Amino acid sequence: MVMTVQTETKPADTAKNIDSRYFFALGALVFCVYAPSLVNLFEQWWNSPEYGHGLFMPFVVGYMIYRKLPFLAKEPLQSSVFGIFMLLAALSLLLAATLADIESIKHYSFCIALSGLILLYGGFRFLKIALTPLLLLFLVIPLPYLLISSLTAGLQLVSSELGTGLIRFFGIPVFLEGNIIDMGTYKLQVVEACSGLRYLYPLLSISLLVAYFLKTPLWFKAFIVLSTIPVTIFMNSLRIAITGVLVNQYGNEVAEGFLHDFEGWVVFLAAFVCLMAEVWLFKAIFIRKGSLHDLFDFSSTESSEKSVVSQLSLRSCLSAIALTFFIGGSALYLAFNSELRVPERSLFAEFPMRIDGRNVVLDSFGQDVLDILKPDDYFIGSYHNKVDNPVGLYMVYYAQQKDGSALHSPKVCIPGGGWVVEDERIEAFNLNGGDLEVNRVVIRKGELTQLVYYWIDQMGVSYTNEYLARASLIKNAVMQNRSDGSLVRVNIVVSDQDFLAADIQLQNFIRGMSGSIGHFLPQ
């Protein structure tokens, strides 16, 4: 008699294996879609002093998730359908950012896509565990240019003021004008590289890592992270003060070269020591037993022989793959085959030389300023008559606004030039039958007071808010395939505090040039 043995199959396990393969295929597809953006991000990490630590962060994040795997192995993970919606949002944002050519938004979209993948694979339980590693990745993504310039300008001013105060503490007379510290024989310029961002970004990531591994209450972890801001500002101001003292003692050459860079590394290490001193003080006050090492947890506290298994829906995986193919493929196509349309316009070199009875005296920028502004076209000059104060006019045009090549806000430039903003508001006045809204700013430097009007023009629409103007670029790119824009600024010296007369002169001047400006600022 022949006996047959029937092997029992486990369809559930087979389904899980198939689902896992589909999921990893989805993950590989997402990384392929974001490959151009990730290459750009890697280049920024490689070339940027502020974000160079980003090169190590993927390895740190991988270790952080790896040490949490035993906790995930307690029970099978439950997939969440919200992952598909998050992936849809991320890919849609990538498509819009590709059209507008805004790299920072592409990078943020990648973080959202990773969150969607985590939700799709392990649900909110897995996302909760991966939240801190995702935040670390988020922190090493370069901020949008408008935020960077505003943050840099603010840190420059604060560091300059504190640095000047510390120099005076050593008995050295100095004079501060904007970001320039005048020491008589030498002027220290607190440029963008000296704003403190090179310390703040890596210190913020380090403090988050320290807080992650600390076995302390949540309030102290939050304190460690937030304290990096005042620590960075103070240590950077101290660095500026030390440079000033060394210049006063040994000459100008110590402000540049190796000694300047070496001093920066020393100050950064000192800032890190300050963070560790905070941890030591916490232990000395609240936990008297054990060593400082006992406050940190660098290894997993549980072990398990179970594997991390996710109960994925095959339909969810296939839907996400189809979604990624469709939207991600469109983004890749646009990235390699689409160019934004640049409208025809007249060059500023042809702008009227006489407006409102005033004749122009042209000016120009040096190459150092042009390297910062990166304009496609610009106009700067002052219009004079024999009676009134001259009216200054500055216009800049960008054919495509990208990260690093976009409109620079006067809110950043004015304080950096040593001007104090005394009043700022939105002003509306009649122009060609309608109202034009402008930013009206009163600025002062010593005895000199000026009135400034400025606004942003994009496709014939005027904006007084830089962030709204920047956000509109995505809509313009999608609807019109354009991202061009212009900034217009007019200013006049205020005599005898007669602001009414100054307002009237600026408004009349703008009315005088409104008839021809449309040829230079495309609608």
In short:
With 523 residues, the protein is α+β, with helices and mostly antiparallel strands.
- Roughly what is the average pLDDT, rounded to an integer? 79
Distance between the termini: 92 Å
Sum up the overall morphology in one term: flat
**Count of DSSP strands:** 14
Radius of gyration (CA) equals 29 Å
Question: How many helices does DSSP assign?
Answer: 16
How much of the sequence lies in strands comes to 15-25%
SSE sequence, one letter per element: HHHHEHHHEEEHHHHEHEEHEEHEEEEHEH
Residue runs with pLDDT of under 50 for 5 or more positions: 1-18, 301-305
Q: Specify the biggest β-sheet.
A: 9 strands, antiparallel
Helix content: 40-55%
- Summing up helix and strand content along with how strands pair, one would put the structural category as alpha+beta
3D architecture notes:
The chain is α+β, with helices and mostly antiparallel strands and 523 residues long. The protein has 16 helices and 14 strands. Strands 6, 7, 8, 9, 10, 11, 12, 13 and 14 form a 9-stranded antiparallel beta sheet that branches. Strand 10 and strand 11 form a beta hairpin. The longest helix has 37 residues. The radius of gyration is 29 Å and the shape is flat.
